[in-house]
Specification:
Strands 1-2 form a two-stranded antiparallel sheet. 45% of the residues lie in helices and 9% in strands. By secondary structure, the chain is mainly alpha-helical.
């Protein structure tokens, strides 16, 4: 347990260099607006994969919009609270985008 399998350089690369993933995002735009822009750029690209299932950006957008429309028909208003309690799945991403 005291013997390291990595050299100090390899350890630095894995822990520091490869973790430098900071990206600046536009602070004036909401997540769902950024998502819509991505849908327009790459509608047929794979947006999400989970346990062998996958959805393209267009499919994910259509399904989350369908949920949003349904919630509106149930009386959910902008800035209203919607609880989401689900197992990890494609559907939880749909739900989180749909309630935005």
């Amino acid at each position: 347990c005291e013997l390291s399998l990595l050299t100090p350089q390899e350890q630095h690369q894995m822990l520091v260099e490869w973790n430098q993933t900071k990206v600046d995002y536009p602070k004036e735009q909401c997540l769902h607006h950024l998502f819509e822009q991505q849908v327009e750029r790459t509608p047929e690209a794979i947006a999400i994969t989970f346990e062998g299932q996958q959805l393209t950006y267009q499919e994910l957008n259509q399904r989350s919009n369908q949920l949003a429309t349904h919630l509106q028909t149930l009386g959910v208003k902008p800035n209203g609270l919607v609880g989401v309690f689900m197992e990890r799945s494609l559907e939880i991403v749909i739900a989180l985008l749909g309630v935005q």
